[in-house]
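Weekly sync notes, structure subgroup
Attendees: PM, AL, DS (notes)

Item 1: joint prediction request from the bench team. They want all two components modeled as one assembly rather than separately. Inputs as received:
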Amino acid sequence: MMLVLPAAVWIFLSFTGLRERLDFDTGENRTKHRIQENTPVNELPKELEAWINDRVPFRSVILAADRKLHAMMELPYSRKIEPFLLKYAMHKEGQEEPASGNAPENEAAKDHTEASAENPDYYPVKVRNGVILGREGWLFIDQEMMDYLGLNLPGITVLQEYRDAFGRLQKNAEARGMTFAAAAFPNKSRIYPEYMPSMEMSKAFRLQMIEDDLKKNSSVPFTYVCEEMLEGKSDGLLYYTLDTHWNYKGALIGLNEVYRLLNLPAIDSENLSYTEFEHVGDLTNILNSPSAETAELPLYKPEITAESTAGPEHDYGFHERGYSEYISDARDARTIVMIGDSYLVNLSEYVKKDFAHSYFVNRLFLDTVDPEIIRSADILVFAFCERNSTDEFGWYCLDGLSAAAEILE
Amino acid sequence: MLFSSMIFLWGFLPFVIILNTVIGRLPYKKPDGAIRAKNIFLLISSLVFYAWGGIYYLLIMLSCILVNYFGGRLLAHRIREKRARKLFLSLVILLNLLILFVFKYFNMTVIVIEKILAGSRLDFFNMTGTGELGIPEIVLPIGISFFTFQAMSYVVDVYRGTVQVQDRIVPFALYISFFPQLIAGPIVRYRNIAGEIEGRKESAELFSEGVRRFLYGLGKKVLLANVFAKTADQIFALDSAAQTGLTAWLGLIAYTLQLYYDFSGYSDMAIGLGRMFGFHFTENFRYPYMALSARDFWNRWHISLSSWFREYVYIPLGGNRKGKARTYLNLMIVFALTGFWHGANFTFILWGLYCGLFVLLERLFFGKILEKNPVKILNHLYVMLSFMIGLAVFRSDNVYRGFSYVAGLFCFGKDDWSVLSWLSMELLAAAAAGILLSGPLQALFKGKLGNLRDRKWFWTADFIFQLGILVLSVFSLVSGSYNPFIYFQF
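Output from the run, pasted for the record:
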């Protein structure tokens, strides 16, 4: 009865219309599993299980309740018991100096060093489902650790590869009369190391070395928007605490750097109006924990309208079909095409008002998106986030550079 | 199909229970019509259950069923001469062992031969082959160690005359393949359920007892074992250089609890399921972590396996009837085989020998001391520490990693407080519950529950507790299916 009754109630509810309300979005950002038509017989059991797992009665309600239960258990532990255990452990070891990382050498980062010295307590490294549980409830993705710890510093071969790849795309773009620029956006942990657990932060960084090499040995207009973000963080949060991405404030800093490379005037946020919106951190979705952006309520996004050629998804087709496209009544009649990753989503909110026609192409979809979109650019920008500067995680920016260069050949 | 999966809980199990009940209530011409029909239905359900993991596995089990069914019938009805019977029995046992060898131990044999050919000395016991022989790996069918041992026990019992041969294939096939005990035991002797296969009595009381037992097993597996597994798996996967002494101990404690609750949880579910269908399977665990000696431990841990080896290996080898030296040798052989039964790796053989050594040492030297020791907590500490250290090798991928893990248990230093990074409320709560429920709580309330069972509120509280376990287990299982598309990774 205990097992059959919920299923019976669930079937009954589908006739009442209540089922839709109870079958709400769980933040998984995917469609329910479908069994493909030509599935081999020996794989049918696995497929059927996956199908059933996605359709268990009251699944959304159960997931939400489970999240709350875990939060009820873990929050008091992390806020009261764990600090006590840490203090006891530190006392036993006689440690007084913070075990946090070393500061990077540039001037702009000194502020962050002083900030971390104010927070000297040891904070253990905890990774759950690939998410680093940082200080004061901040979350980071563990893919950033390689950059943070300096474990992926580029050798001569890699630097040459970057020069060649960027050089090829630049050459092909400029041969078509395009204005070209490239940008890399820093990992959240790079800008907010004071919220990371106690790990020895590297003094050298992969992207910094790539930027230095490109500036010294090539003519590629490239910017690694790190110093500017470190300077800008004193004006307010630039990343979501519970998400991997920058917020609209951080995206504006990144965009202004790209505009600088393109000799375009910087956007002044004073001239923009902002509206509140709700946001669920992607890292809380991975942890399946309740989202609470308490560190930065309320959240604002710029009030900018432009016509989109895709549906009303939050990213206007960027992740579904591989690109988002906007048409506006901007005075600049040029077409701007920005190729990048999910960091472009927030950035695109500002760009779309500045150009009559703007495309934001998902780097993963370069093989399938209409190549004419790329070729139509008057301004071409290639962007990527720091953690995609290696091939560790399958979204290597160099692959995107090659694909884009090939389209323009 | 796992018991702790949604397709089993929401699909297979309710379907089989309902249909089994309906089939039992239909009118039949013969008096045993209902039981025969139910047996056929349960057999089909069990075959579907097993085939869920792969049709290929089903063929292997069906081969085992046929070999032992006909083997038993020939032994019982056709082969009379003593020597011929012995030879034939050996042939049938050999066929069973051949099935086991091919599908469980062949890969290991190939690796060992490759190592010998390559002249490997330094990493001979590392179970990674060179691929030189080019022989593809054979996939291990789930539960093969259980059903082959069940089959062999049947044939030996028929030979010995301790059990009447089963002439009908359906009941015999049901005995081998019955889904509650098919994939993780207990190893059921035919003589223990022969009567119930032919004429079992199902009742609401037995059914609810079965549900209760099943739910407790489900809770052990999902709410305890799975929590410990998360920590144990991560710590055992660490490089030895990254592992501090305290972290190693945490991983080992987590694994010790995981192993017990996983295995005993599955046994409880099997026993509970059996009762739902009118079968009484024997207990497989009797609070082993409360044992006072290694010998006591092995009378409480995986009882069906140790009793199988005692009856079908130790005693035929002579047991303790051929002098002390032979007794000790028999003991070590049995423990080595017990270890080897667990898996095709030198770690398991070594673990088995290690466990046997303590039983031997107790027989030789300090068994009496343990019995007479008034400070029983020391007995518990000795048993737990000796077992846990063996588990470090048991759990490791190879003997070298096992030894380095054991060595790491005794290396303490400044970085030890990093063990705190592994802790969470979930783990601490599970550990507290896991330690208390592994025997201490039961020992505390021993003899006192009898009075409580007469009270109405006890059963209400018990029902609420069962409901709570089911709800929390379902929560845990559903959240295990949570699978976000991590678009940000790109």
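Discussion: The radius of gyration of chain B is 24 Å.
Action: AL to compare against the crosslinking data before next sync.
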